[in-house]
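@channel anyone free to eyeball this complex?
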Amino acid sequence: MNRRGSGLGLFALLVYLFLYAPILVLAALSFNESRSSALWEGFTFAWYLKLLQNAQVMQALRTSLIVAFVSTVFSTVLGTAAALAFHRHRFRRGAAIEALFALPIVVPEIVIASSMVLLFAALSLRLGLLTVVLAHVAFSISYVVVVVRARLAGFDRTLEEAAMDLGAGPWRTLWTVTLPLCAPAILAGALLAFALSIDDYVITSFVAGVGSTTLPLQIYSMVRSGVSPEINAVSTLLLLATSLLLLAAHLLERGKPARLCAAPAGLGLALLAGPFLIGGPAAAAGEKVLNLYIWSNYIAPETLAKFEARHGVKVNVDLYDSNEALLAKLQAGNANYDVVCPSNYAVAILARQELLHPLDLTALPNLAHVDPAFLDRPHDPGNRLSIPYFWGTTGIAYRKSRTGPIDSWAALWEPRFKGRILMLDDARETLGIALLLSRDGHGVNETDERALRQAKELLLVQKPLVRTYNSADFDQVLLAGDVWLAQGWSGQFARAMDEDPDIEYVVPKEGSSFFLDSLAIPRGAPNPALGHAFLDFVMEPEIAAEICMTMRYSTPNRAARALLPAAIRDHPAIFPPPDVMNRVELLEDVGDATVLYDRLWTEVKSAR
Amino acid sequence: MRGAIRLVGVGKSFGGTEAVREVSLDVAPGEFVTLLGPSGCGKTTLLRLLAGFETPDAGQVLISGRDVAGLPPHRRPVNTVFQHYALFPHQDVAGNVAFGLRMQKRPAAEIRDKVARALDLVQLAGYEARRVDELSGGQKQRVALARALVLEPEVLLLDEPLAALDAKLRAQMQVELKNLQERLQMTFVFVTHDRDEALIMSDRVAVMNAGRVEQEGAPDALYDRPRTRFVADFLGVRNLLHVRVLRIDEGLAQLEAGRLRFAARDDGGYRAGAETWVGVRPERVRLLAEGASEAGAEDGVVEDEIYLGDRTDWVVRAAGHALVVAESARGAQPRGRGERVRLLLPPEAVLRLADGDGV
Amino acid sequence: MTARRQALLLLVPAALTLFVLFVLPQALMFEASLGRRSAYGGIVHEWSFANYARALEPLYLGIFARSVGLAALTTGLCLALAWPVAWWIAFRVPQRHKSALLVLLVLPFWTSFLVRMYAWIVLLRTEGVVNAVGVAFGLPAFDLLYNDLAVLIGQVYGELPFMALPLYASMEKLDRRLLEAAADLGASPLRRLREIALPLTLPGIAAGAVLVFIPSLGAYLAPDLLGGAKGVYVGNLVQSQFAVARDAPFGAALSFVLALLVFVAVAAARRPLAAARGL
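replying in thread with the prediction:
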């Protein structure tokens, strides 16, 4: 090989390195002892064991594999048939048909996703496994068609003619000659469809419903606590399984004997079948099921297990990471949840649209344990529709060795912290603190356009200092050392403080917002009685204390607080002192001003 | 009638190009007929019309006395040996040969038996389990043949089946194919662009040009008496001359092509004063030494020599025409370029040709 | 006739699926884009073109321009990285290694895109892997994350195979004797590239460009995760209309403007594709 040739080879090697660097990193991290650090702290298999015990991740993996398998079968059959049709015949309206098959490839995912939601709602199709599979089939077909057609383009047609000549009709020719010869392309198309399905987040997140949380959805909702090593472990295993299957296919194509290919193929399939063998989906026939739709990291599997044991039921958990996702699902009217967890303003919206089931307070004796300060709030007078579950404040967490003590939002505008500031990626929270800083007595629920425009100007001034806007894993960014000051929510920061004593949390003196997340039963819930039982269950002092211990968000349950260890009971981020409670304000729905908030926030973010 | 073919006024065009025009042809049962012509002459299209891969725009196709219009390929009593064999790469030799029998849902024992016999017929006994891509070109050819023959078709269609073989193997296969056909008494319709192949193997040859059958006949008749300029050219009559008929006397037509004058035996087709084409085979032209005084000989100069092993072709310029003269290797004398010779076109060697729309 | 019937029978199931799941929803979407947002985030079906007028305001046009810029840069970079690699596989690698190398190009795509983006964060962050290696060699630590370069890296990373595979497909069909002929006729390596290799791989370039450009136009995960959400791209904008502002009508209008952009891009790529097919 000449000198120029080796230069090209070196370039190719670098590109492959570029492709595999992140893969190597995630594989390495799955064996790293440290949970959040990128630094190597020793080899361990612990995350793989934890993965096996993480019922939610395993369930999501099972769902993903089922969806991927079913949608791959359908899209491969339909796509291969269509590719054969193109191969066999020149259609008269060829251009229109080609355009139809190009649609899934050229229409951006986000557009596909949102339009499918409209369709399923129009068909009043219940969001769930079926809608997810339908969507996956739809967007995979075209890719299968492309791959199989490419193969058929080089197909020797006289082979088909020979078959017909020897007495095979059109269908038998297809079956005995064309299909076997296209098998590698069909396999390639199927693998592509499988990969597209198992990796899809955008479309799935829009069309998923009860019991259809796929792995990407699960991963995305877990991102709040950083991609945990368990996720790296599951990714590594999936990659390993696919590599083995691809290796088997490769060997087979090279004409290696079948028993040589059987080993990698078998191992790969075993890895994929594994999740179904280890503790398969429990819900036996006739068993009652509670469908819970809740924020990620809001309830521990152990707590759910207690409820399942006590009532002899199975709890199905689906996760979301914004109130808007919840609202969209409930407003579409085709989700089937028994219990949901909207924030206070979302409760107000749902109440006005009569999307919540009225509560029977006699079935909720444990409501007596809840601090009255959180009851009978404007968003739900008399708690006829919801019960408080968690609350928390918005504040600043900071690395005190770098910044010194902080007590004002103004710190986030200090030039000496340029490039070390994180702000939430959230119109209400960012414009909210800008409003608090403006000294004209504006609150976080301001709807006056002039005040909001002034607030926006303030955020524009701040933008050059900001390292990143992030409302998912802001605590992890702080822990990793990328920023020194971060605006964020108390519960996540409380966990960060446990990990790193250098981190401090403050609700600044100008005041702040706080949120109250409630549990409610949607109208049309399949099992409202079980829903009531669940609501009462989480208000039991011991249970509420356990939930607070595991999740570190503030419980509104007075009796539970008394049961907590001092470290948590007096934690400044979890239970701030009373004076803090006097300067925080609940975030309310701002109605039509939502559009204005969004527009101003877009202006801030798109400024250079 | 089994194995007879009748084509009546068959026409087929593809997007405005007429591939086959008004072809009428009769093939008797057990006959070996070759469709001969250059590429694009319509011979393969004609074969595909017989096989059923194309449907004619006009005319009738009858096989064994039955009109096969609307009959798809898999229902026709014909089988094809394809140009590049079209063996199924995903099946072994036995699988390929058994394909048609399986389509007919014959019992396994019968299939095994027939496949063995068919392979035996093409001298490939014992090759059942071979993969197709392990076979040589000649072996593939035989498998393709066995695959078609095993179904005992009324007519076997062969589309340039020997084109991909080397010269030696091809010669061998030509003989084998011909023997096989005679043994089986099966109707063969053979397509080729190779003149020698056609002449060696066929009972009858149909020369095609621009979608038409220009001339058909037994190989020797065709060779001796091509009727059109195209057929003559295709069959190796390399000296083609446009002539004017000066007069006809004593059974000889006196012809003139520019300054070249010569006579032809009058077959009754010459008309004094008319213009026509004639042709003379290179091997029928006689070369004489300079100064030889035979009647009708012309002076010429050797312009080029083409050595072909068993014979030598000389290009001789005489009376403004470059004529090709062939001499067998044994008879040939050494001649140099520029050497003066005399050249004679014997009247019985001059063939009168219709113009045709050939080259 | 039977061949036609058979072809129709084969085509109809897929065509019908696509019609019901793509064409119908787009019609619903168009209807929605003419409506307006209700106070609770529902759709009021009073038709007007107000949302389209709003989509064409300078603020949003700027975001569209920025997205086109990112998509164009991504496409260009992908081409620059993928072309030599595809060439290397097509012409420099022994036949028996080719399919393995191609599979290796796509293998990373069997892990979640999200997980791979997070792996990039681990690589690029201030105390991340790249800086750790740099510091070990005595370099200062850089802020590699949360800027436009990081977005570009993530985007190129995500789209590279979609450029490499069509390029390879077009190169595989290329007769290498043409290059030898060009060399034989005295063309320098650079001229051979310009006069033979590039024009003849144009179909692959056009196909790859379409496959990379379109998804890049709608990108929103890489800008959010690697860019620190400091820039807004159309993808983020549309996503936030549906998922944050709950202004589906405006989101639908933006989607249609985006779709229009895509069709313009595809039409632009059609010419070289059609021309190349005529070769």
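from a first look: Strands of chain A lie at 288-295, 313-320, 339-340, 386-399, 421-423, 466-469, 485-489, 503-506, 512-520, 584-586.
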